[in-house]
Design brief:
single chain, mainly alpha, Growth Hormone, Chain: A, globular, MFS_Efflux_Transporters, transmembrane, MFS_dom
Length: 300
């Protein structure tokens, strides 16, 4: 998800909108989450009628258009709406980025675990690239920071041209099958438990990602560019963890989850008591290490 990446630009935006307080500016970083929820709710219906590939392409287009809108807009309300829409676009394809993997690698559990680890790696690579770009772009202006959403263009082109999805039923057949199966549908308890765990995990993580730049600036640990650089470096550190998820899963299995979130808890605790940028960076790395183990396990 690229929505939180512009959080480093928020300190520069506090005085950009007349009559809008700091809390209103921070809403620009949090409101995409509501759009993501809406997109996740709409996505199954779009998949039913347009298939996965068309749904993902539509989501990428919405993300591109809404994401780059603040590059040339200066009014608060239109930018706020565009931030909701970028969340909507991300929500349309975000769950499919993981759920499509088993369609290609469902025959081998170890290979599936490796691919989910690689998916986590590529997400980290994208987040790192975006963070490093933002660390430079914020030195130009807060408008320029939103240029990171131009990274959607190569993703859109490559996916549209080179990703053949497995054959699925026609939209109408899918709709009929779904309707017939609805009567026999039962609540999947493990899915409910995993959903609750994911909710709790990101309830803590998302505010952290939004408030880290403000913490760095307000405590005098660095500036907006430093905050983006820290986010990028910590993301780079998590790449080998994601790449080796299959290795850890094969040897630890269910023990990965408690290990990962013990590290997450330790990372949050160390961030709370950090007094300099080096200490903070180490704490963020520990946090990222824990997420690199725990979150892919939940997806797997």
């Amino acid at each position: 998800m690229m929505a939180p990446q512009i959080a480093s630009a928020l300190p520069l935006m506090y005085h950009a909108f007349k009559g809008v307080q700091a809390a209103g500016v921070q809403t620009l970083s949090t409101i995409p989450n509501f759009g993501i929820v809406a997109g996740l709710l709409i996505s199954p219906f779009m998949v039913r009628w347009f298939h996965e590939k068309a749904t993902i392409i539509i989501g990428l287009l919405v993300t591109l258009i809404a994401g780059t809108f603040p590059m040339y807009a200066s009014a608060y309300v239109p930018i706020l709406i565009s931030r909701f829409l970028i969340g909507l676009g991300i929500g349309l394809f975000n769950s499919l980025a993981v759920s499509l993997i088993p369609q290609f690698y469902k025959r081998d559990e170890d290979e599936l675990a490796r691919m989910i680890g690689y998916q986590n790696v590529m997400g980290s690579v994208g987040a790192a690239i975006a963070s490093f770009l933002v660390s430079y772009l914020v030195t130009i202006s807060w408008h320029a920071a939103f240029a990171i959403y131009l990274l959607v263009i190569p993703v859109l082109i490559l996916f549209a041209l080179f990703v053949p999805l497995p054959h699925t039923a026609t939209p109408r057949q899918t709709s009929q099958t779904t309707t017939k199966a609805a009567g026999n549908h039962q609540i999947n308890r493990p899915v409910v438990v995993i959903s609750i765990l994911m909710f709790l995990v990101f309830t803590f993580y998302m505010p952290f990602s939004y408030e880290l730049p403000s913490l760095i600036v307000n405590e005098g640990l660095g500036n907006a560019s430093t905050a983006a650089l820290i986010a990028g470096l910590s993301t780079l550190v998590s790449i080998p963890i994601g790449a080796s998820f299959g290795f850890f899963f094969k040897r630890l299995h269910d023990r990965i989850f408690p290990l990962g979130f013990v590290l997450v808890a330790a990372g949050f605790l160390l961030i709370a008591v950090a007094t300099n940028i080096i200490f903070l960076f180490i704490a963020v790395v520990i946090l990222g290490f824990g997420f690199g183990l725990g979150v892919p396990y939940l997806y797997n």
